[in-house]
């Protein structure tokens, strides 16, 4: 029995870490323009709150799956968040005071985690086999690695700003996968498998292109004012 418990726990930790890469990207993008002290607060508070909500969602996962078009709506909303992050609209510290900026970053982290958490919730719920203690332990053990992962990505974003587009593209790719996994649309995708394969790449390309055009427009307007 103890061996089964440890095996299930290791499986859940592995799932959380593998599927937590997107979370680390969200955290890094949401916090990249904050001052260092507030950045650390946003990372820790945002991650902790996201984990608490993730546990709650796992508890009601069976009921959530019965809501029609939930995956579709979540995917579209995540696409919106990806665009805001790549465009820098979520945490523009030149226009927003530092305190609201901190909580805006935390809100973005938590909402994005909830939207991206469907695949994680299903995988973890299956591995836990109804043992919520396992779910909680697995998530909390993975916290330090997700936090450190986001800090490493933040360093890379600071050094190589163009990586913002790649991060936003990854989130948009995730949103595309959520859309094609919507149960109510499986009939359409079954008849058009190429469409199913293409949508994640289309959403990623669209968001990257939109982000590039947005920044070019901002640079053009700035140059005209100067």
Please give a handful of descriptors for the protein shown.
mainly alpha; globular; 226 residues; 85% helix
Radius of gyration: 18 Å
Distance between the termini: 70 Å
Instruction: Summarize model confidence as the mean pLDDT.
Output: 80
Following the backbone from N to C, one meets helices and strands in this order, namely HHHHHHHHHH
Indicate the proportion of strand residues.
under 5%
What is shown here, in short?
The chain contains ten helices and no strands. The chain is an all-alpha fold.
Word description of this protein:
Helices cover 85% and strands 0% of the residues. The chain has ten helices and no strands. Helix 1 crosses helix 6 and helix 5 runs parallel beside helix 10. The protein starts with a helix and ends with a helix. About 4% of the residues have low confidence.
SSE arrangement:
Layout: H1 2-19, H2 21-31, H3 36-59, H4 61-64, H5 70-87, H6 98-128, H7 132-159, H8 163-180, H9 186-191, H10 193-225
Helix pairs in contact: 1-6, 1-7, 2-6, 2-7, 2-8, 3-6, 3-7, 5-6, 5-8, 5-10, 8-10
